[in-house]
Amino acid sequence: MFRTVRITINQLSESFFFAVQALQQNKTRAFLSTLGITIGIFCIIMVLTLVESLERNIQKSVDSFGKDLVFIDKWPWSFGSDYKWWKYMNRPNPRMDEMKAINERSVLSAGAALVINMNVTAKYESNSAQGVSLQGVTYEYGRIKKMDFAQGRFFNENETKSGLPVAIIGSEIAKALFPSVNPLDKTISIRGARVKVVGVFAKEGESLLGNSMDNLIMVPTNLVARYIRINSDRANAQIHVKAADNIPVDLLEEELRGIMRSKRKLSPGAEENFALNKTTLISAPIKQLFSVVTLAGWVIGGFAMIVGGFGIANIMFVSVKERTNQIGIQKALGAKNYFILSEFLVESVMLCIAGGSIGIGIVSLISYGANSVSDFEVYLSMKNIATGLTVSVIIGLISGIMPAYNASRLNPVDAIRAK
Q1: pLDDT digits (tens, 9 = 90+) for 348-358
Q2: How far does the chain reach from its first CA to its final CA, in angstroms?
């Protein structure tokens, strides 16, 4: 048995040696024959890489909302032709007393916070920042949202309950308003309100969903309420509720539905005038979209692979024709059919792997360049590299099987006489 295995390994090694030798003797032909495979693998892996990168970056943005959070809002996070925006617009915004009721009654949550969102312009002396996201939060927000600070701190309980004029600003706001001075304890102007900066968020980078804290100013909710009514169309209020440890978000959602219906005195058959949102409502449609884009990439790359596969098969038929005499001599010296078959299959697979490797290399260079000049992270994963090489091997086997089979079935006498 061991002798048979050793002989098989030796013969396969010789097949590999003959294949390498044949490729070295026809470098130009080998290079040109791999172009179709290179283009096909490049198309497939580039699309897979871009889709995976987009999905990861968007999922990262989605996760930053909080995977274990439920958002009570008047606007549902679902869109389509039947989206009844006129009805949702007339719904009441979540209120402070509803947040307090959740904190008192809920046994499945780790806490709830009222959050008010709106856009403002912030000023400091002659500097200004326009289109800034202003977020008013209650003290409980610090318990349900992880925040990293470059400087300063979060609000204390007295500041939030009293609505004191204090603010935490994002890194981009700090850069725009305070290009050359320390922003801590400086006073900025927001819609006529003068507030003191007590903290600066650590830089997060750009977010594809626009929810980065870099362009955010956070103030106490009661401070916002002094200037704009919570039920005003200019402000959007939400209650963020964090699930307790090991509590599924779906289970928390059902509990919150009962609390909100009770608080708003809705009868059992009455339609709800609030929405319970979670991050899966965003990520699910995105995954469906990316699956379509991925399929399109496979189709586009598949056509190039088919053309490349025919090119490889054609080259292998030519190679068999050129080496017919050599095949006859090998068989006359005792070479088995599977040895001749493996020799040409190895050559075909090596051609495809070479083309696939070049395509993957080009994707790798593009990914490196994109990461060097942009905040958008491009991921060329080992999974996609393995996919590219696997597809290359499969195309090599399919393209080379017929020429290799024909070579293995040649009659040694006829092959030696061939010219």
Answers
A1: 888 888 888 88
A2: 40
Q: Is the pLDDT of residue 107 over 60?
A: yes
Give the residue, 281 or 403, on which the prediction is more confident: 403
The amino acid occupying position 376 is F
pLDDT digits (tens, 9 = 90+) for 316-340: 887 788 778 877 877 777 777 877 7
Structure tokens at 234: 């200019």
